[in-house]
Design goal:
This protein has 218 residues and is of the alpha/beta class. The protein has six helices and seven strands. A seven-stranded parallel β-sheet has the order 3-4-2-5-6-1-7, with helices on both faces. InterPro entries: ATP-dep_Helicase_C, DinG/Rad3-like, P-loop_NTPase.
């Protein structure tokens, strides 16, 4: 598990970070040929990232989660994730959606997941009421209404990679907030091995080192 401390993905900074985001994704998929999923916080941002990625890397095969997909369409999406070490397949999906939980892509059907942003829920009156409720109880309303539900979606998406005791894969957390004290205390125990990278070169070196070690059995 790797965390990119050098890529801010707050709502105000996303557009500015777009190039760094797609570069980090491309760095992940070029370290090892295989199948990958990228999870984003909304369809709007997903489409922006996909457009930028396809313009920069048109040779990469990509598939996209569409809104209101039928069960058959969802199954067709997942069927494309076959064990294939000859080319890269990159899927884009939404955090909290049908592909972020309850799917089983074992072995080389899924080699890695990138999660872009800390997954904060969209601002709305219902969530704000929940925040105010906890604030009035002298608790951290933002944490209970926004941060923890967002993290739950992150945990669900990250869990798509390792589905059995023999699975091997990469989880890439793209958002500098993941490396801060506001988030690390809530990480599950097995995330203690997460490594923070501070630039593209560190990310690349860690990815290649990880896969080299797995290939040599170390």
């Amino acid at each position: 598990m790797l965390i990119t401390s050098y890529i801010p993905v707050t709502y105000q900074q996303r557009q500015h970070s777009l190039t760094k985001i797609i570069t980090a994704i491309y760095t992940m998929i070029t370290a090892k040929t295989g199948n990958y999923l990228v999870f984003l916080p909304s369809y709007t941002f997903l489409k922006q990232v996909v457009v930028a990625f396809n313009q920069a890397y048109p040779h990469v095969d990509t598939i996209i989660q569409e809104t209101n997909m039928t069960r058959i369409q969802q199954e067709e999406f997942l069927k494309q994730f076959v064990s294939n070490l000859s080319k890269v397949l990159l899927g884009f999906a939404v955090l909290g959606g049908s592909f972020a939980e309850g799917i089983d892509l074992k072995g080389d059907r899924l080699n890695g997941v990138a999660i872009v942003s800390v997954g904060l829920p969209m601002l709305n009156s219902e969530t704000n009421e929940l925040k105010e409720y906890f604030d009035n109880k002298q608790k951290n309303g933002f944490q209970y209404a926004y941060q923890l539900p967002g993290l739950n979606n992150i945990f669900q998406a990250a869990g798509r990679v390792i589905r059995s005791s023999t699975d091997i894969g990469v989880v890439l957390l793209i958002d500098s907030r993941f490396s801060t004290a506001r988030y690390t205390p809530f990480f599950p125990p097995h995330w203690k091995y997460a490594h923070v990278v501070h630039n593209k070169l560190e990310l690349q070196n860690n990815l290649f080192k990880f896969w080299d070690n797995k290939n040599t059995g170390s």
